[in-house]
């Protein structure tokens, strides 16, 4: 049975021990990321490393202090979203994690869209460029579409258009052109229109917008098409489904070629080509 002296000794011992300092938000998130390591490892493609992903995510969070004010579960959900798509958040432009109110929002970047498209194996090259006032630029649609762009040197003026081009391994190609007014219209549909990459990396987001519009015409698998729909989303936690906060979804064509009779397939191809170059 403990005596009064024993209790006094225990209290004295506790008093002599340094008080534990509460963890900062950054330390809390770092601890969670470390604990999530095995789950991140499972989600990542084989060429990516969970420790590297955690370090990059923590660096992204440090460089955007408002993320530390976000709900930790949604922040971890955004990191898991990046891991599942095999995209690295941060400066290279694969994807971004930005604050959306008290929740973290995941956004695919221009380079991320390019990377997802290339994974299909059917695309030889895909790229996008901005066109400025002083540039030499012309394009035509119709039965024989063509595009010509010769960038000016020196001061090129304001951005006027953005275009994207995809060359397919079978020799075909697809291109899309948008003027700045259309880019701005689509930007306005985003909940992140006034912060994040739309402010810091406007041209990159403009390029991504055109590629996003072209996405449904590219020869890529349904799985990759569906991956691209996980753009501008919020996840309440790592296990919940992502919820879009963008007002325009990417169309995903889930009709396979094998399910269309030959005659109908020819008609569909004819109709689609007309739509691609005449809209």
Structural class: alpha+beta
**Ends distance:** 88 Å
- Count of helices? 11
What fraction of residues sit in β-strands? 15-25%
Largest sheet: 3 strands, antiparallel
- Name the strands of the widest sheet in spatial order: 3-6-7
Question: Strand-and-helix sequence, N→C?
Answer: HHHHHEEHEEEEEHHHHEEH
Mean pLDDT: 78
Task: Find the count of extended strands (DSSP E, 2+ residues).
Answer: 9
Percent of residues in helical segments? 40-55%
pLDDT below 50 for ≥5 consecutive residues: which ranges? 249-279
Radius of gyration: 25 Å
What gross morphology would you assign? elongated
Provide a quick synopsis of the model:
With 279 residues, the chain is an alpha+beta fold.
Strands, helices and their partners?
Layout: H1 4-16, H2 25-35, H3 37-43, H4 50-63, H5 72-85, E1 95-100, E2 103-108, H6 110-118, E3 123-132, E4 136-140, E5 146-150, E6 159-168, E7 173-179, H7 180-187, H8 197-200, H9 202-214, H10 222-228, E8 233-234, E9 243-244, H11 262-278
Antiparallel strand pairs: 1-2, 3-6, 4-5, 6-7, 8-9
Helix pairs in contact: 2-4, 3-4, 3-5, 6-9
